[in-house]
Specification:
Layout (H helix, E strand, L loop, with lengths): L2 H52 L6 E6 L5 E6 L4 E7 L2 E6 H43 L15
Antiparallel strand pairs: 1-2, 3-4
Helix pairs in contact: 1-2
Length: 154
């Protein structure tokens, strides 16, 4: 193998490890964050629906609030007919329960679209990784790592 080939192989390996794999890691982390947000919104929607079913919005609501690290504090909510919802960028909006459910449905639809786009991006990056690996295999004259084709038994 010539020095020029060795340099090319090294450059492709560096591109693979420092660029493609890091991009894939970032895309998958962003998708995981979106899935966490979707989970939080769906959990909030379930709580709102339970409040509406039990009609506890008119009475004083006693609940426990997680302050973090599974440390709970008892709380009394005098008016549970309205709720503050995080809408993004650190902003909260006060909604009625019905408005909050509508907002959550729209937000989850948008988050699902973003998650699907990130999944497609991850698939493209994985395809590029596979392409670079196959190119490296050919440049180094290594045997194919793909499974052998099936033989016809008839």
């Amino acid at each position: 193998m010539s020095q020029k080939s060795a340099d090319k192989i090294l450059a492709y390996e560096q591109f693979l490890n420092e660029t493609l794999r890091e991009d894939l890691k970032k895309v998958l982390e962003a998708r995981d964050e979106i899935h966490k947000q979707m989970s939080d919104y769906l959990q909030l929607k379930t709580v709102i629906e339970r409040l509406q079913e039990t009609k506890l919005t008119d009475d004083v609501l006693k609940t426990q609030i997680d302050m973090g690290n599974n440390f709970y504090v008892e709380a009394k909510v005098p008016d549970a007919s309205r709720i503050c919802v995080a809408v993004g960028y650190g902003f909260f909006v006060e909604f009625t329960l019905d408005e909050a459910v509508k907002f959550i449905d729209k937000k989850n639809k948008r988050l699902t679209e973003r998650s699907n786009n990130l999944t497609n991006d991850a698939a493209k990056i994985k395809a590029n990784i596979r392409l670079v690996l196959e190119g490296l295999r050919e440049m180094q004259h290594l045997p194919s790592s793909s499974p052998k084709p099936f033989r016809d038994i008839f």
